[in-house]
Each structure stands twice: as C-alpha cells, then as structure tokens.
Amino acid sequence: HTLSLHDALPIFVLQAALQVGCESWGCEIMENACSIAEAQKAEFEARCRLWGLQPGLTRLERGDFMVNEEIRAALQRADVVLVNNEVFTPELNVSLVNLFLDLKEGCKIVSLKSFVPENRKISNYNNNDPSNILNVAKKAYSTKSVSWKDEGGNYYIATKDSTRLQLYGDRS
User: Fold this and answer.
1) CA atoms of 23 and 48, how far apart (whole Å)
2) CB of 108 within 8 A of CB of 79?
3) pTM assigned to the model
4) Among residues 63, 55, 54, 70, which one has the least CA distance to residue 23?
5) pLDDT value at position 169?
6) How is the beta sheet containing 108-111 ordered, strand by strand?
7) For residue 34, what are the contacts with CB-CB under 8 A and spacing of at least 6?
C-alpha cells in the first residue's frame, strides 16, 4: 500500500499500482495539477484495459492532505509514503511528523528533506520529540535522474521504529 503526499503528478501513484499491484493513493492541493492528474489517471485506466493489465486500486484525492480523513486512514495502512516536501514550510514538516505517529511500524517514508536533523541522538532534552520514532537513511540521486532539476541531490528514507524510544528509555 503506497501513499503519495506531494505536489507532483500521479506518476508515482500509477506506477506503483501497475508495477507492484498495490493499493496506491495520492493527494494534491493545486487545482491545475489535480486536473492534469485526473486526466493522466483516465488515460492510464484506458490503456490498462486495452492491454489487459490489472493494476492495483488507485485513488487520487483533491485538497489538503492534513485534513483529509480518507488520507489519514490510508496513512495507517501504508507500507510506503512518498512526500515531496522540498518546498514545505518547517511547520508543515513538523505537522507531518505528528501524522506519522499513526503509521504502522516499519512503514517507509521517502522524502526530499529529512524529518530528523542529521546525526540526531535521543537525549533527555529531546526525548518527547515525535521525530524520534524515525530511523533515517540519507541517499543520493545522480545528475539528470529526476524530472524537476538537472543536478543530483539527496533524498531520505525514514522508517517508523518506535523501539528507538524504548531502547533509550531502557538505557536512562
């Protein structure tokens, strides 16, 4: 089950449903992008029928993912969440971390900005920070490997792992 929370077209949502066969959701707030996404989904479904392909269920939602109850429910079932958060405000990224508290253990969150400061250690000072449930790995993508810019960059894969806090509590 994948969930895409970002401002891009539904390519990830449709590809995941086709390639893996999973239930795949996307949410977009910008009207123009929503219209394009819906047209792409209609074309995708028509081609799948034409070629006899059986993708997983795809669902595209319009609006703010922070208040969309169906998105919140989908988050609780998700195995992978893609968040294009490169231009999100710091406040929105903090709000997302609070949503991630409801993710199931082991869920992967792929993002363009980390939700956890680099080299963060759990301490008495920050042990109540919700981001402590995330174990983050920094990855790199190469030049000309993404559609939105020519140069390479970094992305992050965070895994929900509540045992990090339990281990800290056992040591203190």
Assistant:
1) 15
2) yes
3) 0.86
4) 55
5) 63
6) 58-62, 24-28, 2-5, 80-83, 108-111, 153-160, 134-141
7) 28, 60, 62
**Whether 49 contacts 43, CB under 8 Å:** no
pLDDT tens digits for range 125-166: 888 888 999 999 999 999 888 767 788 899 999 999 988 777
Residue in 68, 74, 96 with CA at minimum distance from that of residue 84: 96
